[in-house]
Amino acid sequence: SSLTLETAAGSDEIVLHAGWNLISTDRIPTDANVASVFAGLSSGNLQYVTGFNSAVQFYDPNGLEFLNSLGSLDNGYGYWVKVLSDDVLHVQGTQLSDGYLPPLNEGWNLVGHMSETSIAPEVVFDELYSNGDLLYVTGFDQGVQVYDPNGLPFLNTLTEMRNGFGYWVKSAVATDGGVLAPTVGDEVTSIANPRYAVLNGTSNLEAFAGEFVHVINARGNTVSRLEILPGGYLMTTALYEDENGMYGLRPGDALRFSFHGSIVEMEGDAFKGEMEHVKLNLEFPGLEASLAVFPNPMTSTSNVSFTLIEKGEVLVELVDIQGRVLAILDQGARTEGLQIIEFNASDLAAGTYAIRLTVDGVEISSERVVKAK
Predict the structure, then answer these.
(1) 290-371 is classed in which CATH architecture?
(2) Of 89, 206, 233, 238, which residue has the fewest beta carbons closer than 10 angstroms?
């Protein structure tokens, strides 16, 4: 099994087995950059490193660097490490204080065990345990280990936390420095948890950099978003399991993506929630130029943004409900991609209007807008 050995001063040795390992180090790495920490492994052996602090962070040494969302290791946290074959990780650095624990967020956390001594979970988290706020602790050593403080003690397979390992901890409260669990809303589409998949890749959305592709479930709810980067690349994000299928995905659910009303479903890839990395190559058919206004309702100033699939002659007009043109907001030749216009609406009477986008003489899009009183 994996273990951490004290060797020369300032060094950890962590044994890694082929496949996934849930580890931690009691060192403050001399260089905490992920690539530097794992540079001593056998060439080509490292496949992935994932971390978790309110959300999944991902590092792929064989992928494009700008798609990595995990750049460095933070003190006291746990990390999943996947290798092709058995190896030994050497971590150089100053030793953390015995028993150091980072702040815990409400909900799930991925932490390490810094003490040299193996200690029972209810002792490590004694205050949470005493207050009834410790919900679960799970570990992994070539198999899952579970501690449920509210279950029958003889059913617990995790009886002690050991140096060198990482642990999932679910807390009912946030400790000092931690954050409260988010509420699902416009910016939060699902609740982060240990059952997840990681997605990134490419698309035919080169002209839409800065916008987002939405991942939707069977109910049509957005469960995650992928930012569109220059070149049509899709930034790394995570999908989380939700056994009710409301704010996440259930194992076996299809991966469905929505952009500007067009929906693409991946063939052959279904959600598992087993830390799988899904590499995307999304092709959305029938894309047209898009128009958006923010804020809407308008107050004094609003931004009118539109994205062109290809360069063209553009006309952006403000019209009233009878279709009469009140103002020309933009006109002329524009290149493909995102365009943003600042519109001063301070002199506009309160009421309902529309902003109309015409490209090469053809009306492409119209957005209803309201001027607040």
Answers:
(1) Sandwich (2.60)
(2) 206
Give one word for 34, left, alpha or beta, with left for phi > 0 and alpha for psi -120 to 50: alpha
Q: In this structure, are residues 352 and 370 in contact, taking their beta carbons and an 8 Å threshold? A: yes
Q: Which helix (H) or strand (E) holds 37?
A: helix 34-37
Distance CA 345, CA 298 (A): 7
Give the pLDDT confidence score for residue 203 in this predicted structure: 94
Rounded CA separation 58/49 (Å): 6
> Domain locations in the chain?
1-181, 196-282, 290-371
Q: How far apart are CA 232 and CA 177, in angstroms?
A: 37
The rounded distance, in Å, linking the Cα atoms of 167 and 140 is 8
Give the pLDDT of residue 210: 86
Burial of 131 (0-12, 13-18, 19+ CB in 10 A): exposed
Q: Quick check: bond before 297 cis, omega within 30? A: yes
Q: Which residue has the tokens 């501690």?
A: 147
Q: What is the pLDDT of residue 207?
A: 80
What pLDDT does residue 190 have?
Answer: 82
Residues sharing a CB contact under 8 Å with residue 53, sequence separation 6 or more, in sequence order: 74, 77, 105, 109, 110
**Domain 196-282 belongs in CATH node 2.30.29:** no
Burial 148-164 (b: 16+ CB within 10 A, else e): bbeeeeeebebeebbbb
What distance lies between CA 58 and its chain's CA centroid? 9
